[in-house]
């Protein structure tokens, strides 16, 4: 049976500014929290930083031509706050001009720009005054958003306010695994709410400047599965993790309230104290689409040493590995059926709106040979997840697009350059780009709007 996607289905690839741009001290850009975090010994593998990235700042024209060669219809990228408003202050025209050039080049090649306003690179100066734990930061984010939309709104139709606020709040402020590297659960709880408030305020700013724009947010979602569904303790762990991972964002965005059980879980950390009366109206302002990032499932247990006693614990403390499961180079289980589960949950349990898979991909240890990079494992991963996505569409899910992660090999956060997600190989010394087998295969899928065999 031929697996054909709906007419107009959007095919793209994604990157993030700090992971690919490089040029971290060029044209007025100042430090983000990730620049600072990378300088802390032991935080990032081998002490790597955002330099050189994939040098996308200087090579974006080459990269856009590459996207066109692959038949991509859209490019999801993020805009670096420290370029546009260095130190969170006044607008930097040189930073805005880079994104103008990027957007213009994409449009020249018939590729739809899909900018994300925040992919984790908070200006360090704003972190110094409290970061996302401080109520002022969402308002500074709205100022930044307004600046970007004023400059690009005549050429950009679709905006994403934030990428994976869960990671920013809980990996950054509670687990200390991401920038800014704090381990303060009270700050993490406040950050989660303020990130949502920032989304709402930015949505207002976008609509004020560009009333016909489409606005959305991207969340990382996972089925949360108790190790023993008959064990009440395991079931309760799954409830808590699902609350702090997914419902903490979905419910205020789409239902205008936080779940009652989550409020109880977070009461010891002062969560309700940061919520003001008008906040939920701002946060729940209508959005036009929801982005879903999916990589694997959470399989959780109440057993000692598997989860901690608190509801904000990091991912590394949650996963209860299953034997004989295929895994990626990130040690994540390959569970394509989980993608269908996530999409069906949104379809059945929440107010319906257009969905886009804004990230899905896998890191593997690529072997570079004279014949190229034959990454069958990555192509097979993408194919299995596209099959699962198509199954959800057949069940009625309004899924309208798919962005593979990632276009380019890049700086993989705390893993530095040790892990490669790209469908295009990057030699970090020479910056030579080499499309892998997965890129050639994905190009056939995008051009044909249909799933084809990996070969």
Tally the helices.
15
Mean pLDDT: 94
Residues in helices, as a percent range: 25-40%
Poorly predicted parts? 307-318
CATH topology (level 3) name? TIM Barrel
The strands making up the biggest β-sheet line up spatially as 2-3-4-5-6-8-10-11
Strand count, sense and closure of the main sheet? 8 strands, parallel, barrel
Account of the 3D structure:
This protein is of the alpha/beta class. It has 15 helices and 14 strands. It has one domain: TIM Barrel. The strands form four sheets. It has an eight-stranded parallel beta barrel with strand order 2-3-4-5-6-8-10-11, surrounded by four helices. A two-stranded antiparallel sheet has the order 1-14. Helix 14 (376-394) links the parallel strand 10 (355-359) and strand 11 (399-405). The longest helix is centred in the middle third of the chain and has 25 residues, at 185-209. It is globular and about 60 Å long.
Features:
455 residues, two-stranded antiparallel ribbon, 15 helices, 14 strands, alpha/beta, 40% helix, eight-stranded parallel beta barrel, TIM Barrel
Provide a quick synopsis of the model.
This protein is of the alpha/beta class.
Topology:
Elements: E1 3-4, E2 10-14, H1 17-20, H2 33-38, H3 56-69, E3 74-78, H4 81-84, H5 93-108, E4 112-118, H6 124-128, H7 136-152, E5 158-163, H8 165-173, H9 185-209, E6 214-220, E7 224-226, H10 232-255, H11 260-266, H12 279-283, E8 289-293, E9 298-300, H13 337-349, E10 355-359, H14 376-394, E11 399-405, E12 424-426, E13 433-435, H15 437-448, E14 450-451
Helix pairs in contact: 3-5, 7-9, 8-9, 13-14, 14-15
